[in-house]
Amino acid sequence: MIAENLKQILSELPEKVRLVAVSKFHPNEAIEEAYRAGQRVFGESKVQEMTAKYESLPKDIEWHFIGHLQTNKIKYIVPYVALIHGIDSYKLLAEVDKQAAKAGKTVNCLLQLHIAREETKFGFSFDECREMLAAGEWRKLKHIRICGLMGMATNTDNDEQIRTEFCSLSSFFNEVKAKWLADAESFRELSMGMSHDYHEAIAVGSTLIRVGSKIFGERNY
According to the UniProt entry, which residues carry N6-(pyridoxal phosphate)lysine (predicted)? Predict the structure, then answer.
C-alpha cells in the first residue's frame, strides 16, 4: 500500500519538487517499505525518535528534521541531519552553528515563517525575519547554511485562504533572496505543503512537500 501511495504522489510532482516522506510516529517497517519503493528523504519531528531510526536504518537515507527544535537537543542530530526545516529564532540558528562547529560540519537550515492564522504554530513573523536578516549577525555564522524558507498553512478547508498564505510565503522568499541572499546559490528551497494542501503549495512554488498520512496512513500516537 505504501509503495502504491508513493508512486501516486511522485507521479504528480513537477521535476523540481522533492517529496519529504513524513515518517514520524511510524515504525521502521513502514520506512523500510517506502525505502524499498525508492524513497530516500524522510521527515521526523522528535529528536530521540529520529536518532533511533537513523541508527537502525540504511545510511543513505536523508533525514530532515521538521519539528520544533529545542536548543538542548541540537547536538544529537547535527552529525547526520540533512536539513533542519524549523529554525524560528536567531538564538536557535546560532546554537545550531555552535554545535555544527564542534562537529566540524556545516548544517543546512530553513527559516520557519508563521503564515497560518493559528497561534499554535511556530515561526518568525515576516517582520521579525526581516529584522534578523537586516541585523546581519547571521552572516558571521560559518557552520550553517540558510537554504530557504518553510511554512505551514492554516488547517482549514478554505482553499482560498491556504493559497493566500502560501502566496505570501512565496513572495517573501523572493524578497529575502533579492535583498539578503542574492549570491547564495544554496538559497533555493521553499518547504510548504502537506498531505491535504500540497497541490496548492506546488502551484505557487514549493520545492519540498512534507507528506505523511497520504503515504503511511493515519498515525498511531
Answer: 24
